[in-house]
Design brief:
Triger factor/SurA peptide-binding fold, 2 domains, Chitinase A, domain 3, alpha+beta, about 15% strand, two-stranded antiparallel ribbon
């Protein structure tokens, strides 16, 4: 059981919808034709069942078991809890609008996602008593993965990207005359991805930006505005807004995060064992087996 929603799972969902649709049609009804040769609904149905039937049915069976276990154990999941998890996905995908677009492209809806989240949170409650993470496990994990928790040197910056050097020179002159950086972003920058945020690029480490841009940004003081920096993208005027030095990870500061990581890993492992047990307990009649 994985907390992450795998949008690729929509294949199975789509297959279900297609199979249901095909069931509503006459078996001999044509769904397509090639040079007058019909492809009948029955052929479509058989192909869908052969390709996706067992996988889709297995998913439906496990979902039904979770639903029955929720009822049996009086498990409830609040909308607030679902909304809190949904906010994490919005952040991961760059905002609610971007997440919605991803869902639409995958053939899913927010309702589908909310149902997945509700089921996950319910399973989390069902498995809670079976899972524990010890201090020793957390400390061992930290020592084995310490470098991944180290904080690299980072710079936060915003920029104005122009197509020509002449435009970049105009921007520098206007900045020297006291015009606001964000106003000049709107008027000059061709970086459409950062115009709305005033040119903000967020924080980045070494190796994430093109070389000339990176060299300039990491050599500047906070609040300093660069001269013109030419890259393959055009001409940049950079302002550094923050600079943090590299720091080694401190166990106490990441202990909670490590605990959550280990817990989620155990949930995934324990879910499979739990589901196997439940499938043996329930009377399941699978006609596709």
């Amino acid at each position: 059981m994985n907390k992450k929603i795998l949008l690729g799972g929509v294949v199975a969902v789509s297959a279900v919808l297609l199979i249901i649709l095909s069931l509503s049609m006459d078996p001999k009804e044509s769904v397509a034709s090639v040079n007058g040769e019909d492809i009948e609904k029955e052929e479509l149905y058989d192909t869908l069942v052969e390709q996706y039937g067992q996988e889709t049915l297995d998913t439906l069976i496990t979902n039904k078991i979770v639903e029955l276990e929720k009822e049996e154990n009086d498990i409830t999941v609040s909308q607030d809890a679902v909304d809190e998890e949904l906010a994490v996905y919005y952040e991961q995908y760059g905002g609610e609008e971007a997440f919605q677009s991803t869902l639409e492209a995958s053939g899913m809806t927010i309702a589908d996602v909310e149902k997945d989240i509700e089921d996950y949170l319910a399973v989390d409650q069902l498995l809670a008593e079976r899972i524990s993470v010890t201090d020793e496990e957390k400390e061992t994990y930290f020592e084995e993965n310490k470098e991944s928790y180290d904080q690299p040197e980072q710079v936060s910056a915003r920029h104005i990207l122009t197509e020509t050097e002449e435009e970049a020179e105009e921007v520098l002159t206007k900045l020297e005359d006291g015009e606001a950086f964000e106003d000049l972003v709107t008027g000059y920058s061709i970086d459409d991805t950062t115009v709305a945020s005033g040119g903000d690029l967020g924080a980045f480490s070494e190796g994430e930006m093109v070389e000339a841009f990176e060299e300039a940004a990491f050599s500047m003081e906070v609040g300093e505005v660069s001269d013109i920096v030419e890259t393959e993208y055009g001409y940049h005027i950079i302002e550094v807004t923050d600079h943090t030095e590299a720091q080694e990870a401190v166990y106490e500061e990441v202990e909670e995060e490590i605990g959550e990581t280990l817990y989620q890993s155990k949930v995934s492992e324990e879910y499979n064992l739990w589901m196997q047990e439940k499938m043996e307990e329930y009377d399941i009649d699978n006609s596709l087996d």
